[in-house]
């Protein structure tokens, strides 16, 4: 494999990494931001029936509930966080 082939292969891999989308993902985020600005990287769900959440703190009710923690990647380097606050 010559230098041109290596450069072409590296460029193809880099383009694949930069082309992040949520088109084929099981979990998609919809926010006040333009579509596909945030893409789910990881999601953790926990359920409680005793009124205490996953952290062990009192939830304030007898039924418990479901909580979700979502890590997301931004497809926009200049993301304005103020657009998410409401």
Topology:
Elements: H1 3-18, E1 38-48, E2 65-74
Antiparallel strand pairs: 1-2
Give the overall silhouette: elongated
Ends apart, CA distance between termini:
54 Å
Sheet with the most strands: spatial strand order? 1-2
What is the helix fraction of residues, given as a range? 10-25%
Number of helices: 1
What class, by secondary structure content?
A: alpha+beta
What is the number of beta strands? 2
Overall pLDDT score: 75
User: Strand fraction band?
Assistant: 15-25%
- Secondary-structure element string: HEE
Question: In this structure, how is the largest beta sheet organized?
Answer: 2 strands, antiparallel
**Computed CA radius of gyration, to the nearest angstrom:** 20 Å
- Poorly predicted sequence stretches spanning 5 or more consecutive residues: none
